[in-house]
Pantothenate synthetase (Pseudonocardia halophobica), 294 residues
Amino acid sequence: MTAPARTRNGYARGRLTVHDDPAKLTPVSRALRAAGRKVVLVPTMGALHEGHRELIRHARSVPGNVVPVVSIFVNPLQFGPNEDLERYPRPLERDLDACREEGVELVFTPSVDHMYPPGSDTRIVAGALGADLEGGPRPGHFDGMLTVVAKLFHIVGPDVALFGEKDYQQLTLVKKMVRDLDFPLSVVGVPTVREPDGLALSSRNVYLSADERPRAVTLSRALREGAAVSAHGPAAVLERARAVLDTEPALQVEYLELRDADTLGEPVDGGRARLLVAARIGATRLIDNVPVQL
Ligand code: AMP
């Protein structure tokens, strides 16, 4: 691979410019906006797969003269002490190739020191929803996630930010933070990209063994079959999904919940709901969710 050409503000790879320093990225992004470009941010932790690529393609399809910006940062604040921070995959060169293939113009790859220099201990608090569902077994996870997302929003200053529905509670909390704290941008959710058998794509799927991989599909099958009986009401949805989950003894289900699609509170009769599941299979923790019309 040829060495990337240095430019004044980072290094260029084809049309792609990579910055690791927030102080360098911010003026570039501001200048692009001042020139009439629409900055669309796709925040990621890297190890880019087809789900991330779909977010990037979605970014490019936003109306206007779009600059797709991807951030790649494995955020230590959102990992618990016994989680996979150290072994989380970080294939940066492959990720940059994927970004170039998808027509990304700017990539932001800060180091932990760039994002959290010594003494940087101010945090966003996720509120009650932050302690629910994923927040139960992962205390502080959403505070850490919202803190980095708020920083990314300030550093990049996007017009639009895209998040996957795959992480539905994250999407809901980011929308809520933007509303509650008056961030001047719009947050858009993108439907989950799945393997042909239904498994939601995730950077963590690489942890699944050959034996676990086919078993993991039970998660999405349970959600699909549950959603299919929504005409019979919320109890039927949960009962059907639970029955499917119970067919796979390797799955340790942490929660299966039907919630209101906007607030993640109690589902409303006749409203849009979301069926969400979290389960462990061996050492790997997987989450998934689907829309349900009640
Ligand atoms: P991550 O790198 O896991 O933090 O994910 C970065 C973004 O990609 C988040 O907004 C995720 O919700 C989204 N994402 C992850 N997996 C998928 C998927 N299978 N389909 C759509 N979006 C996804």
In short: Residues 44-45, 51-52, 54-55, 163-164, 166-167, 190, 192-193, 200-203 surround adenosine monophosphate (CB under 6 Å).
